[in-house]
Inverse folding.
């Protein structure tokens, strides 16, 4: 940019007025005197601060307090920059050395309370807050800070009252409105939280159209990044959309959570704030690998940059992907975070899950102790709920129900973990015993009923009881049958077949087929009917009816030439084909020649279409560097073995 002599001041101030701070920084950096004069350093510090480059801003103000030590405003700006950069102790040192101007007293007290809050010294923050005056338009700020301290003490109702008072005293402020929404979220009042979020988003779109809210969704991720301008920080949009994503995630709507994050103003990954990066890790559609790497990256940054939930969620994600050794290593490497960010309940649960890998008996004992403790609390809370109902005290009843639901949420993972230990050792009778033990509290919980159905199904002789658990799940979502997990539909069909209810199984399969046709399943991404056919085919193969079983499997995969051929589906194919080969080698199975020829044709198609498709499932962090085997290669080997057995006399 060419600027004529005599117009530098006008040009730079125009850029700042138009919030073109990066252009102003670039222009100032072309002037040698900018880094040595009061005017240049002051402008650079202001622009860096507005661009949220707080380290560079702090460097500018550090030079300024050395250049003009008598100007206390620069000392205040220096400490503010250090605070925003997360350097709380350094900020406190600057405040304590020379910031004694009466004109700055209120701002200094406000900054001191913020620094103490950031250092988790809530007593000192409260002390600073009490010294502040409510005059000069500071009432809204004081009320908001009081709300923050109450929120930190888990006094969400009192905090909410302070935030509402702050909004009434100072008018609408997106950050205060977000704080109020957060209190509603903690109180599980999601509809009220979403009302605040909707207002923040509506005002943000209206006042800052340049931020491109929703552009990511409209352009399918191809929107140009808007960076992190001051308008984004002032609008509260990032906080609002992240809270909306958290609500959707908590309600089990992962697609809704991803949609909320997609609606954020477009930014490249290095420009994302830590909370957005954290939530993207939890909702990553590709798989666990990217999510685990993002959470591990945030954990390495450490507090205060790292969101407090990162440590627990990283451990839970490792356990979800059965990476228990990794979880144990993370716990060992970050023992200083264990007591700070893990509740005793969560630590005991994670400890039991990790222990189960080496000593299942010890894990069962730990989980039993935890279940007994929460079970006793549940019984006490159930009695309290009954008392409140008898007294017709609606407020007390709501509080008691909320406590009971919270305790039940804690009990359910423990009950599932207790059943999981025998399940993983194929002790389905033991798993059923654990489910019966937890039925007192969990029998009406959908997830408990679903897993109980799986256990009964795997018993092999309880298909009728398993169907009784599966049927309500299917009936509840019959109009949107593709929203039901494919495993539920497949297991229910098998249960019908095993209890001689073939017509019901056929009707259910027709329903799934029609739903897939309506959805337009040309890409093969919807695998519900495919999985149903695979499971039924596997069932018949297990009963030594390979002719019909393999025909169902071939039908499920479009003869081996469709998009449904992948590592997930191929594993069922090769198990059944290997079962056939074993039976033929032992001469216990004889198939008609036409059935053998159809199997050869099916394997030939799998060989052609699966030549580049990996045949094995890999873990989220597995990267051996070696080329994985492909479906095409394995299909060729199976076909060669089948031809050799067919030629054997």
């Amino acid at each position: 940019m060419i600027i004529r002599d005599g117009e530098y001041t006008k040009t730079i101030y125009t850029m700042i007025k138009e919030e073109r701070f990066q252009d102003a920084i670039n222009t100032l950096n072309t002037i040698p005197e900018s880094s040595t004069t009061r005017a240049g350093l002051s402008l650079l510090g202001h622009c860096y601060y507005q661009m949220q480059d707080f380290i560079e801003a702090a460097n500018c103000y550090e030079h300024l307090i050395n250049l003009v030590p008598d100007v206390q405003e620069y000392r205040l700006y220096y400490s503010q920059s250090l605070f925003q950069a997360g350097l709380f102790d350094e900020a406190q040192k600057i405040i304590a050395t020379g910031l004694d101007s009466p004109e700055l007293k209120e701002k200094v007290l406000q900054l001191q309370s913020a620094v103490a809050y950031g250092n988790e010294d809530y007593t000192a923050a409260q002390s600073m807050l009490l010294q502040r005056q409510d005059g000069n338009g500071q009432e809204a700020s004081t009320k908001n800070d009081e709300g923050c301290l109450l929120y930190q003490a888990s006094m969400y109702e009192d905090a909410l009252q302070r935030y509402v008072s702050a909004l009434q005293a100072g008018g609408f402020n997106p950050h205060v409105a977000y704080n109020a929404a957060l209190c509603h979220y903690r109180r599980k009042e999601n509809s009220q939280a979403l009302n605040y979020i909707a207002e923040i988003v509506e005002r943000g779109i209206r006042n800052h159209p340049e931020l491109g809210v929703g552009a990511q969704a409209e352009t399918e991720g191809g929107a140009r990044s808007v960076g992190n301008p001051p308008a984004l920080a002032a609008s509260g949009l990032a906080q609002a959309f992240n809270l909306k994503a958290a609500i959707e995630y908590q309600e089990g709507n992962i697609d809704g959570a991803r949609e909320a994050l997609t609606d954020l103003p477009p930014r490249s990954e290095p420009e994302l704030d830590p909370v957005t990066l954290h939530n993207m890790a939890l909702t990553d559609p590709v798989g666990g690998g990217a999510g685990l790497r993002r959470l591990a990256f945030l954990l390495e940054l450490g507090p205060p940059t790292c969101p407090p939930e990162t440590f627990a969620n990283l451990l839970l994600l490792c356990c979800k992907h059965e990476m228990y050794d990794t979880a144990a290593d993370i716990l060992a490497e970050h023992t200083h975070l264990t007591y700070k960010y893990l509740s005793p309940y969560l630590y005991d649960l994670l400890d039991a899950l990790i222990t189960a890998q080496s000593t299942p008996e010890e894990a069962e004992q730990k989980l039993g102790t935890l279940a007994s403790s929460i079970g006793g609390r549940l019984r006490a809370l159930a009695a309290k709920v009954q008392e409140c109902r008898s007294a017709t005290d609606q407020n007390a009843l709501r509080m008691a129900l909320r406590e009971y639901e919270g305790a039940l949420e804690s009990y359910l993972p423990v009950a599932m973990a207790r059943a999981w230990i025998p399940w993983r050792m194929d002790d389905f009778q033991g798993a059923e015993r654990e489910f019966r033990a937890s039925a007192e509290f969990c029998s009406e919980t959908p997830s408990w009923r679903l897993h109980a159905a799986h256990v009964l199904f795997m018993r092999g002789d309880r298909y009728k009881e398993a169907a009784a658990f599966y049927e309500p799940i299917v009936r509840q979502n019959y109009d949107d049958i593709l929203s039901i997990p494919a495993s539920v539909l497949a297991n229910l069909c098998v249960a019908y077949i095993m209890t001689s209810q073939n017509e019901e199984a056929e009707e259910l399969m027709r329903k799934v087929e029609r739903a897939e046709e309506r959805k337009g399943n040309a890409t093969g991404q919807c695998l519900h009917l495919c999985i149903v056919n695979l499971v039924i085919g596997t069932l018949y193969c297990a009963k030594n009816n390979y002719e019909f079983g393999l025909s169902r499997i071939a039908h499920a995969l479009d003869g081996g030439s469709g998009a449904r051929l992948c590592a997930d589906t191929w594993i069922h194919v090769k198990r059944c084909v290997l079962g056939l080969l074993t039976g033929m080698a032992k001469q216990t199975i004889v198939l008609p020649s036409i059935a053998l020829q159809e199997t050869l044709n099916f394997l030939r198609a799998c060989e052609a279409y699966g030549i580049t498709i990996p045949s094995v499932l890999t873990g989220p962090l597995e990267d051996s560097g070696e080329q994985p085997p492909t479906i095409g290669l394995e299909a060729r080997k199976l076909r060669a073995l089948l031809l050799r057995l067919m030629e054997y006399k």
